[in-house]
Amino acid sequence: MTDNGRDEDDQTAWQPLSEGPPDQSAPSESGPGADVTSAAPWLTAARESGSADYSPWQPPPAPAPASSVGEDTAIFGPETDGSVGRPRRRGRALTAVGAAAVVIAIAAVAAVALSGSPAKKPLTPHQILAAAVHNEARLTSVSATVSERVSGPVSVELNASVQAQIRPLRLSVRLSESLAAQHIPITMIANSSAMYLKLGAALPGIPSAARGKWLKLPFAELGPSSPFASLQQSLQNANPASQTRQLLALTHLHAEGPATVDGVSTTKYEGSFAPSAALKELPASQRAQLAPVMNQIKGDVAVSVWIDGQKQIRKLTETEEVAGSTVALTMTINSYNQPVHIAFPSAGQVIVPPAGEVSGGSPT
After folding, report:
1. How do residues 179-196 score in pLDDT, each as one tens digit?
2. Among candidates 254, 262, 247, which has minimal Cα distance to 317?
3. What angle (nearest 5°) sits at the alpha carbon of residue 301, between those of residues 297 and 302?
4. The pLDDT of residue 7
5. Entry pTM
6. Pairwise CA distance, residues 22 & 316, whole Å
7. Contact call for residues 331 and 320 (beta carbons, < 8 A)
8. I need a surface site. Which of 92, 114, 178, 190 has the fewest CB within 10 A?
9. Please, are residues 258 and 298 in contact by the beta-carbon 8 Å criterion?
10. What is d(CA 362, CA 234) in angstroms, rounded to the nearest whole number?
């Protein structure tokens, strides 16, 4: 025994404990010696979890009342039991819907960023043609090959190579014409006011003095009965500038499908225009020159045009009825904006026929 009258073995009951109440040995459930773990299940859970906030003398905070959490409240964290758990499950559903909306929005923004701009409606055939004609007007030069077939009372076949300077207009045409079993080489040079013609052989109605010389033929003096009328029409047909401007008058224009022209991918379009409507698309100076020739065309002109991905015309065909004959024209563009050299003859090489002969008077 000790001085205070207690056995040495009983002193352990008075030692302070680091955990739990002083006496955990009594069997009573409600007395001071009751088992703490059986009376407070939260204590066992706290011990097993190793929570840093564990204290055997304080119970954990009470859960929030069910009424304090709304049915549509989104609660983040582990799901709980009872009425609080139901709002959390609904909260997760609402959160998932919001996340899906964000993903869709991000995908839409990414699609726009990758494409560079929102999807645009495809251009109509008329819009594509207008863009091609606009591009032609900005060119500095054009090189092309032209073929023309005339079938009817008189059969004519013409093949030509063409070089054109757009501004100021300079046109050089070297052609070979087959007429009535006769092969005739012809060179033509033109500006906006006149054409210069040099024949490699005699033609009916052409002055004999003109052979080997350049004939200057002012457009203002040429008429439908002129012996040069057909050559004027051939020159007009060979002029890329006037041909493309007339295309703005096309109606019933539609795409026929993809096609390749000299190795270039294009789309073929078809339509037609009235000669009177085509004249209105030309500058006033060209209208005055070409009106006598265009007025001889009966009905509409059937047109096919091939346009590449850069909105440039690569090929053009026209079919028309003139003075009882069918004229079929094909023009294929060889190059754009390449240097061309077109020289006009000197005054000593030029003959100016009398006005009557140019307009259709009797040749000398």
Report:
1. 777 788 889 999 888 899
2. 247
3. 150
4. 46
5. 0.61
6. 110
7. no
8. 114
9. no
10. 23
Q: How far is CA 19 from CA 2, 16, 39, 56, 60, in A?
A: 27, 9, 15, 7, 16
Q: What is the dihedral of CA 80, 84, 89, 93, to 10 degrees?
A: -140
Q: For the segment 97-135, what is each residue's pLDDT rounded down to a tens digit? A: 455 555 454 554 444 444 455 567 899 999 999 999 999
Q: What is the pLDDT of residue 317?
A: 97
Q: C-alpha distances in angstroms, 269 versus 40, 150, 188, 317?
A: 90, 23, 31, 11
Please count the residues of the chain: 364
Residue 188 to residue 97: CA distance in whole angstroms: 77
The answer to whether the CB of 171 falls within 8 A of the CB of 239 is yes
Can you tell me which residue has the tokens 């582990």? 78
Gap between the Cα atoms of 300 and 213, Å rounded: 38
Q: Where are the alpha helices (DSSP H) in the chain?
A: 36-39, 41-49, 85-115, 125-137, 229-238, 240-246, 275-280, 284-294, 355-359
